[in-house]
Amino acid sequence: MPYPRVIPHTDGSGTVDAVGEGVAREWIGRRVWCYGAHSYRPFGTAAQYAVVPLSLVVGLPDRVPLEQGACLGIPGITSHRAVHVAGSVKGKTILVQGGAGAVGACAVQLAHQAGARVIATCRAESEKEIASRAGADEVLLTGQGLAERVRTLAPDGVDHIVEVAFGANIKTDTEVLAQGGSVATYATNTPMPEIPVWRLVFVNARLFFVGSDDVPADAKIEATHDINKALEAGWKGLDIAEIVSLDQIAQAHELVEHPVKPGRVVVAIT
């Protein structure tokens, strides 16, 4: 381990109990969410108390439950960067692969909020409602003929793609990408995928690779502002599948590894 003792987990929410030197006391008692608590630091949020720099703390809008605030960090920062890394998406057509997942649903909402037309994909009929609720204009099931179905909705191609499974989907992505379009991927199903280079060359594609820990600091701050704007505008946030107590944290990890139903798993301090 990088430290003699590690408390895991990077995201969380709660009420500020105390502040350090130089931090306004007005923060005490405020409901907040935080991100990056465990990034390059030993002590994360799987505890009754977590100490984090003020730069990683964000006020939680009044009507948003703390359980929802605990879900926002990594999915929110990752999705915002994946949506906006290539520039403004206002008036553009965006494809979100995996629009029912945590990052995918956030990406759908943030792209919608930014004025994009959003096409989302998902793997099962039961997941389509999640992507639609997040703000997708069109939701398509993955599988045979996906590229043709996307092209039917966007005859000139899509301007930007948020990608969850780079290796599995890059061939389809290149088939639907508009000239000068871009792909931002935050995950891949295989670490060494084959890439259709010439097709990407001929459409002058741009590829971006997004890791939430090392997103530029100003982009993280912009992400938190836009996430809160979405919540204040009525977005309900991410689906929560299970809430478990801290002493059942091993079970929480098992539920993440083998989901019983879609949604986030939240560890509650009781």
Describe the structure.
With 270 residues, the protein is an alpha/beta fold. 31% of the residues lie in helices and 20% in strands. Strands 6-5-4-7-8-9 form a six-stranded parallel sheet, sandwiched between helices. It has a three-stranded antiparallel sheet with strand order 1-2-3. It has a two-stranded parallel ribbon with strand order 10-11. The longest helix has 16 residues. The two termini are 28 Å apart. The model has no long low-confidence stretch (mean pLDDT 96).
Helix and strand string, N-terminal first? Answer: EEEHHEHEHEHEHEHEHEHE
Helical segment count: 9
Name of the top-level CATH class of the largest domain: Alpha Beta
How many domains, in number, for the residues? 2
Task: Indicate the CATH topology of the largest domain.
Answer: Quinone Oxidoreductase, Chain A, domain 1
Main sheet record? 6 strands, parallel
Q: What structural class results from the helix and strand content?
A: alpha/beta
User: What is the count of β-strands?
Assistant: 11
Which whole number gives the mean pLDDT?
96
The proportion of strand residues reads: 15-25%
Task: Kindly report the name of the CATH homologous superfamily of the largest domain.
Answer: Medium-chain alcohol dehydrogenases, catalytic domain
Estimated helix fraction: 25-40%
| First and last CA, distance | 28 Å
Give the neighbour order of strands across the main sheet.
6-5-4-7-8-9
What is the general shape?
globular
